[in-house]
């Protein structure tokens, strides 16, 4: 048997190399963004810091916003997976809260770095706009499971209700995060989210 064939089920060398370079770009860029500010940091600076050409950098990421928010799609998938893993009989609001908590507990940032990154997102209009666009995609991912939790899937209004629930939960998350950033990270994020949900539910 030729052991050089490798594992056909896993990513090839080229893909592993690409992922490693992407990870290095993100790590380096985030450090520069946090040190010098998002708007002040250029793609050329990032490329020089890593030791690659600007043209090579653009093959991996088209914009600075893509570097910061590139993993938001993965976060959306992780959130959907966390929601689907909740007990089948759990009501939508409780399931959404637990799924969001699981997602944030899985993020690979210290509280201090997460505050810096989130503050940067909220301070940049271009980043904020792209983040909200990505969050809309999260809504689309969450709707099918919420429809299932609402039951009576033949009801044509169930998808509308599910979309409203998902959008509202994410809006509450955004409101809680903004309050947390404004407080300098001093308020409790979970409590802020619960307060936002309570206000939304009346």
UniProtKB/TrEMBL annotation:
Q: What molecular function does GO assign, one term?
A: DNA-binding transcription factor activity
Look up the DNA-binding region in the UniProt entry and give its residue ranges: 42-61
| Organism of provenance | Streptomyces fodineus
Q: Give the highest taxon in the source lineage.
A: Bacteria
User: What UniProt keywords apply to this chain's record, in alphabetical order?
Assistant: DNA-binding, Transcription, Transcription regulation
PANTHER family associated with the record? HTH-TYPE TRANSCRIPTIONAL REGULATOR RUTR (PTHR30055), MYCOFACTOCIN BIOSYNTHESIS TRANSCRIPTIONAL REGULATOR MFTR-RELATED (PTHR30055:SF238)
Which Pfam families is this protein grouped with? TetR_C_14, TetR_N
Name under which the protein is recorded: BetI family transcriptional regulator
Alphabetical list of InterPro entries matching this protein: DNA-bd_HTH_TetR-type_CS (IPR023772), Homeodomain-like_sf (IPR009057), HTH-type_TetR-like_transc_reg (IPR050109), HTH_TetR (IPR001647), MftR_C (IPR041347)
Annotated ranges, domain HTH tetR-type:
19-79
